[in-house]
């Protein structure tokens, strides 16, 4: 294991992939707390805002925004100006203005709390001030005005969680099932592997649709569907390794010493299959994430208010002509994770290759 870790440490591509995975996972974990936006918060005046590092609202957009808010308040906005980040505007109306209507300004998320600095005797004309907020959307906003960076990072939590949990379930079931089948051999092996073949023949999408008849679509359904299918490959890999190990001298010696089948599997068979299994697991995580994205794209996966990269990609595909950044943002995160996992899997395959270990 030390030699394998040394070879992995000399593989720059694998180290770069590991760094990308760590950075994306850390960003998904703590990033939403640092963006300044709640993932579910809607900015009605900033719908489909293009990605930019400039703050919003833009100077040229302040006057139209104030006029729209004034129309809702049933007043007329006059002498609109911004000085030192403070909005100053005069509001007039044929009848006395109810000051409670001024709450429209801070409610828009573009301006802070309003202050009345002057009024006429009849209350038909008010001079008000309000601070102009500075909102940043590096990846833009969606069709409802929600920050795409925050939503992509929160969606990454769901996608990575599904990838890791489903892979863990596949490892637990597949390694146990394959090791038992390979070590038992004979009719037990034949019956167990025919059951695997039957599950292979079941179309995955049909299986998910069948589950939807009995369960509600959501995160739990995805974990059940993916976990029920993805362990099959792991079982075959482990069985093949076990068949090559069960006639080795150290296994025969353990049998001669009277160790039980469970102890031999636990202490001798399973530990010697971890090399290929570890490589397969790193390649299984991106496949699980792609499956989740596929199900969410079809509307069979994660449901609102929760979201995932697949769900965001589905939303972005529907608005690709008017807002292409809605597709580019979550797709960029997904591609980065998939490429990094595949590169890391290749690096682990090279590091754990027994022929390389024998050569050294």
Automatic annotation (TrEMBL):
Its main location: membrane. Pfam families: BPD_transp_1, OppC_N. It comes from the Bacteria. InterPro entries: BP-dependent_transpt_permease, MetI-like, MetI-like_sf, OppC_N. Signal peptide: none annotated. Residues 156-345 form the ABC transmembrane type-1 domain. PROSITE patterns: ABC_TM1 (PS50928), PROKAR_LIPOPROTEIN (PS51257). Keywords: Cell inner membrane, Cell membrane, Membrane, Peptide transport, Protein transport, Transmembrane, Transmembrane helix, Transport. It is a multi-pass membrane protein. SUPFAM superfamilies: MetI-like (SSF161098). It is found in: Cell inner membrane; Cell membrane. The keyword Membrane applies. This is Oligopeptide transport system permease protein OppC. It comes from Methylobacterium goesingense.
